[in-house]
Amino acid sequence: MATDANGLSPGLRVLRRDDWDKWYDTLIRGFGGVPESAEERELWNSLTEVDRSLAAWDGDECVGTAGAFSFRLTVPGGASVPAAGVTMVSVAATHRRRGVLTSMMRRQLDDVRASGEPLAVLTASEPAIYGRFGYGAATFQLCAEIDTTRVRLTSLPAGTDDVRVRYAVPAETLDACEALYARLVPSRPGMLARQPGWERLEVLDPESDRGGASPLQCVLAERDGETVGYARYRVKPDWEAAGPNGSVILESSAALDPAADAALWRFLFGIDLTSSLVLRGRGRPVDDAWRHWVSDIRRCRPRVLDALYLRPVDVGAALEARTYQAPVDVVFEVEDAFCPWNSGRWRLSGDAKGASCERTADAADLVLSVQELGAAYLGGVSLGSLGTAGRVREVRRGALAEASLGFGTGVAPWLPHGF
């Protein structure tokens, strides 16, 4: 596909609703061609924001797809900040290395800037693709496969025995679970406020996703008649000569307090005919409480994976939108080749109450690219560690330690679901 003088594909245009099926088929083919269930397809059709979706065409053939969701993302300090959730990105294998992806990313970030959203976020099928567009890995997820025959839960918090755990039908308890989730959203950076319709994603249960396990199951944690937690999971039976060897697969869970959380974990550990608890899906936060309850962390086989990638679209607005756990007064020199309006020097002054970030002619204290700024933005990656890796350059002595401390957070950022 040829490009014009601005590097944009002439066949790139905003998606029309009538073209959604062809556009979505192109996306599915780009991700292997395995068709989704009718229910999944209908859900993604209803969630697609066509006015924020792009289609690249070569004649009548759709050869590229990209979309964005209008999200609100929790940032350090608890504010809910508008963020474009970049999604459904694909390029036909017949049209690779022709500038299709770059054209879509260029148009998309221009549109995000015009809409006034200071942040763009995505989950990456291949992380190497998005670094060149300024996205940095900002949150991580903790996955594990816990041997529940040899690992015990110890030192559970007071009040655990006061929490009742009962079975529930996932779809019938969705409203109660969503209300609980909404209460937790401001408490952890990286969490997304779910807009109407997104709750259906949590109980979507196509057989193709089960991998031989049971349909989705659910339990509620209750105290004095109030729902204080929930867990959604599957059980995958397995029988060996020595006896049952099934697995519990945790899809999602949430709790309002440590006792409710512990009661849910104790239930999951004790399901009959199983010998392991597998944390999959979006995993759990890297600082999740269960790590402190298990008797042997090694037999949990923990591993940390990248999750949410973030790029500031408007550096000044993004840095002003969050707070800082310690006072900062630092001048960043930002390099941003793909969004040059961000390049230059910015003075950030802030603390736990708020912040200001404005352009300045003052000398730089720290030099970094927008990718590093995105990685550190939610507090899950320290500026100090990036400095150790040579990806942040300290000009003023002490500035890196000051900024690294300020950017930190009391809890690890976490993305609870994909998009």
Strand content: 25-35%
Structural class: alpha+beta
Instruction: Give a count of the beta strands, DSSP E runs of length 2 or more.
Output: 21
**Major sheet summary line:** 7 strands, mixed
Query: Which shape, going by the Cα principal axes?
Result: globular
Helix-strand blueprint:
Elements: E1 12-14, H1 20-30, H2 38-47, E2 54-58, E3 61-74, E4 80-91, H3 100-115, E5 119-123, H4 127-130, E6 136-137, E7 140-147, E8 164-168, H5 174-184, H6 199-203, E9 217-223, E10 226-236, E11 239-240, E12 243-244, E13 246-255, H7 258-269, E14 274-284, E15 303-306, E16 308-312, H8 315-321, E17 328-335, E18 344-351, E19 354-359, E20 366-369, H9 370-376, H10 383-388, E21 392-394, H11 399-407
Parallel strand pairs: 4-5, 13-14, 17-20
Antiparallel strand pairs: 1-2, 2-3, 3-4, 5-16, 6-16, 7-14, 7-15, 8-9, 9-10, 10-13, 11-12, 17-18, 18-19, 20-21
Structural account:
The protein has eleven helices and 21 strands. It is α+β, with helices and mostly antiparallel strands. The strands form four sheets. A seven-stranded mixed β-sheet has the order 1-2-3-4-5-16-6, sandwiched between helices. The chain has a seven-stranded mixed β-sheet with strand order 8-9-10-13-14-7-15. Strands 19-18-17-20-21 form a five-stranded mixed β-sheet. The longest helix is centred in the N-terminal third of the chain and has 16 residues. It is globular. About 1% of the residues have low confidence.
